[in-house]
Structure formats: C-alpha cells, structure tokens
Known about the structure:
This protein is of the alpha/beta class. Helix content is 32%, strand content 23%.
Amino acid sequence: MKIFFDIVGCRLNQSEVERLANIFRALGHEIVGDPGVADIAVINTCAVTVKAAADSRKKLRRAARVGAKKVIATGCWATLYPEEARALPGVSEVVSNAEKDSLVSKVLNIPDEVVARLTLVRESLPGVRRRTRAFIKVQEGCNNHCTYCLTRLARGGSHSRALDDIQRDVQAALTGGAKEIVLTGVQLGAWGQDFPQSRRLDDLIAGVLAMPGIQRVRLSSIEPWDFDPAFLSLWQDERLCRQLHIPLQSGDDPILKAMGRPITSAEYLDLIGMIREEIPEMAITTDVITGFPGETEESFQTSEAFLKKVSFAGGHVFTYSPRPGTAAFNMKEHVPAQVAKRRNAILREVLNETSRAYRDQFIGRSLWVLWESSTLHQDGSWELSGLTDNYVRVLASAAHDHWNEILEVSMEAHHSSRPALIGSLIAK
Length: 428
C-alpha cells in the first residue's frame, strides 16, 4: 500500500509520523508525498490554538478531496474532538493519542508483537515533511498546569519511554543516514521521573551520546523549572548542540502567575545567566504569548522590556487563543484581538533584532553546518540552506549538492531579507 503522512503542530507530531512511517516501510509499504495517490492518509492533528485546529480540519478534508482512499485522523485535535473528526467528509477512522503507538498494527490487523520485532530504518518523509534531522520522541504527556494549554487534556500526564526503546529509534535514524538527533517530548525535562527508579534527563542524553555513530544531538523545548544547571557539564561533549529552547510565555510576573507558570521573571533571568556564564555562545530561544487575559498595556511593556533584557537568539510569538476546557477560557479581562495582534508584531520585531544581534558575533568566523535543503539552479549551481549546531540559519552557493552533509562554512554577512547568515564553503 501507499501511505501518506502529514502533521499540524509540534516536533513531537513530526517524530510520531516519522516512526509510524518507519514501521510501515519495514512491513513492505511505500511512503508517498502526495495524498492523491495514497491508499491511506494519516494526519497527525493539533489543538494548541484555534488556527491549529482549523488547519487540522483543512488537511483532513484536503486528503479526502484529492483522492486518498482512506483518511485516518490522529493527534491532539482528533483525540479531544473525535466525533467532530469522524463527521468530516472522507475521514474513515479516528485513532486517539492513547492508541497511536498501535496505529500500524490496528490498520494492518497484525499483532503489536510483530511490530515490536521489526528492525527499523529511518528515511526522510517525502514531500514537504522531508527532514534531515531525526525527531525522536522520548516521553509523552505533561505534569504542568498552564492555564492556557490543552495538551495535558489531550495527552495526559508525563510518561517516559524506556531508554532501550529510544535507542532503538535513534539507531533506526543513524542507519538511515541521519546526522542530527533531536530528542523531543511534551515535557522533555520530566523524562525518567516516572520510572520505578527515577532517572533524569542527563541520564538520557548520556545514553544517546554513548551510541556509536552519533554526530549531533539536539534538545527540543525544555521548561525552565525542569532545567538543572548541573546538566551544563554535558556540553563538554561538542556533539551536543549549543541551543536551548526555554519557553518564557511572559516577562510580567502577574501574568506568569495567571498562566500557571511556576516561575518568576527574576528566576528565569537567573537561569539564563547561569547558562551563559558556563556556555557564553549558547543560543537561547523561547516562546512568548501576547494578549493573555488581564494583560494590560503596562504588563505588556514589562514583558517587552524583559525580552530585550534577555536578548534571545530567536523565538516564536503566539497570540493567545481561547481554548474551551482550559482554566484561562473562563478568565475575565479579555484583550481585544487587534490589540493582541499589534503586541504580537511588536514582540516579533524585538526577537528579530535580538536574533540578528546574536548572529552578528559569528560573522568572520567558521561554523559547521548541516545542510537541510538544496535547490539546483539553471546555471548548474546549488543553493544550500542549513543550520549550525547553535541554530543559526546559513545560506550558501555550491558547485555540488551537499544535502545532509555537515561541512565547515565561513560566515560572511547577514542575509538581506531572511533571518540568516550568508556563508561560503571552506575548501578541504
């Protein structure tokens, strides 16, 4: 059979569809990049915002409209709204997050034990989901109580995957040629805490770095209260990428408290200071929300000033999205949509400026780049785009295709229109 995968949302969703694709391939099926030729289209949905939910429905409808013979909805939106998902034209089945690990065996009507015995090899998904970096799910669910978030309802409390299972997926990625492993989860920093003999995130990282063939390991998002400064000794191994994505959400303490975030802006700043003291060039990226209920102009300006003070290497700004079922949904003092949108634009510009300032320090230096995409021009040259270990986007021209290669590159200038540096390959 021909199987098509698509996602809305986070890296965890990407990780899950990559693993499902690996299983289907190992059982002799073909992964395709066009739902119109697929026997089965699997859409891993998201419900984190109103837009994500709408995008999920749109992708499900499109898969059915263009000709996929069977459309399966899974992921957070499908888990929270299964009847609405089933009612969409062409959707033949809904697989909840709790059932997702057994999706292949359920679809093919084979025992889970058959899947468990497979030797997996990762290949990049065809089409728009093609990735050089391999996203590896290490845990599921969340123990936090952020008042704006539906994830806990959709995925439950934190539960960790065993190190052996994680290493199996990592080995599949290495066998398939992956140069970078990204460890991801809903609450990455909670990994191992639910085991009978509690373990910590540094145990996981060390266990992955100990595997033969590892070239790069990157961490996905980690909450500030889950990051132990003792972890910083791990970065003595240069294969561990110098980037940490540490969500802030607001730089104003009353708003942080209303969000259910168990940290103050001062505690957050102290953590960033400790990280930078130990590893000065660590790229710290973040997430911020504007327009949360009760966000006054004064509290917004406090948050804006805090972003400037921290000087992040990049990040994402989200406009608050009311989600039924969350504590914030019933909060008063709603911020008008146009005000929240204006504040979003202001903070995005702040992050653009601090991101440029971070990149500026690398001009005139050489960095190692993993080339993630390559485009052949009519003159026979290749345009390459990739990432350094510290998450700087780099663009370069080359005489040959270097997709999925890690090469040393001289950083020459800022790109004129993109948040990236222009580089040139260093001849060997």
